[in-house]
Amino acid sequence: MVSRALNLCGLYLGEQEQIRRFGDDNVEGYWENDDFVDLNERLLEAVRGAWDLPFPDEPGWERSPALEPLRQEARRLVEWFSDREPWGWKDPRNALLLPFWKSVIPGLRFVVCVRDPLEVALSLNQRARSSLRFGEWLWEEYYRRILAHTSTADRIVTDYASCLERPAEECARLA
To answer: What is the pTM of this model?
Structure first.
């Protein structure tokens, strides 16, 4: 919802064919750029993780020589967007991969959308049949990493409920 709202405010997310608009489990849309999602999936695989299996967050993992081919690919992808300001992308996997992306894009800024952990756990339970306890743990792990790898200077935080309750005001603040 937030990425689509920012897109409508002028944030470039990619070409129409690159954007994952909806799926069986999300009929209202993901608004994720498939090129970034695909790269993030391969990054997670390279560090022996997955969206639902966070890898150990050891200092310096993002500088591993084994990631160099993916780092070069990320630089090419980012370069493609260089003349399309303002631009951005949404992928929840970014929360696990923040050190990597910060090493590729100096000065990167973040929009962090917080959603009630129980709502997230229930959503994961419906989509992936995971337990509520697992969903709450995963929510905590994602936000722990976001807080560890961003600062108040490079992030703006919104919450899902505010976007629903006051969409115009919240979109203006985020834009």
So the answer is: 0.90
